[in-house]
Design a protein that fits this description.
By secondary structure, this protein is an all-alpha fold. The chain has helices at residues 3-15, 25-34, 36-47, 50-66, 75-93, 103-109, 115-121, 125-136, 141-148, 152-174. α3 (36-47) crosses α4 (50-66). The N and C termini lie far apart (42 Å).
Length: 190
């Protein structure tokens, strides 16, 4: 059920006199435990840094637990939004803006991403955020613009650049095996 459907159901409950069911601290703790891999991956994709991703994850949990009440039906979406908002604060507002990942930087951070994950974390910060928020999380250009404090034109340009870089890197990745050796190109590749 989309946001509009959830809002309608909860409004109907409120109008009928039934007490709306809010997410409790325990609900959020359970959700973050059960969805840890996905929420941490979201944090890592946005920050491109394991230390910042951990701060983002913990900050998202803290915001959910100590923030305003949220309808239980919205808890999952709210937790992902809390991660995104924390990543924005950490990377853009607090000035932790790490450069796009390089092979050396990934080694220093203690992790090595491969495949599509490597392509995302290699993007510049704005490109990475717009790519993740719009294409992976389904945020509109307007929502990205407001949350990132950028114009729609900047958001569209960042998504276009991110898509171009992803296509280039993925094409390059497909032409090499995992040891970095160029594989033979067959007729099927053409």
């Amino acid at each position: 059920m989309g946001w509009m459907g959830e809002a309608h159901v909860n409004r109907t409950r409120a109008l009928s006199g039934a007490a709306p069911v809010y997410t409790t601290e325990g609900d959020f703790c359970r959700l973050f435990k059960e969805e840890m891999r996905g929420l941490y991956t979201l944090s890592l994709l946005l920050t491109a840094d394991t230390e910042l991703a951990e701060r983002c994850f913990v900050g998202g949990l803290d915001d959910c637990v100590n923030g305003n009440p949220v309808f239980r039906d919205w808890a999952h979406a709210w937790s992902r939004r809390a991660i995104i908002m924390n990543a924005i604060r950490i990377v853009f507002v607090a000035g932790a803006n790490p450069p796009a990942s390089t092979d050396a930087a990934r080694g220093e951070r203690g992790w090595d991403a491969t495949g599509p994950l490597a392509s995302v974390v290699r993007l510049r910060s704005l490109e990475r955020f717009v790519f993740v928020m719009s294409l992976l999380e389904g945020y509109s250009d307007h929502e990205c613009s407001v949350l990132l404090n950028r114009s729609r034109k900047e958001v569209v340009a960042a998504r276009t650049a991110a898509s171009r870089h992803m296509a280039e890197w993925n094409a390059s990745f497909e032409m090499h095996d995992t040891k970095g050796k160029v594989r033979e190109i067959s007729a099927a590749d053409l």
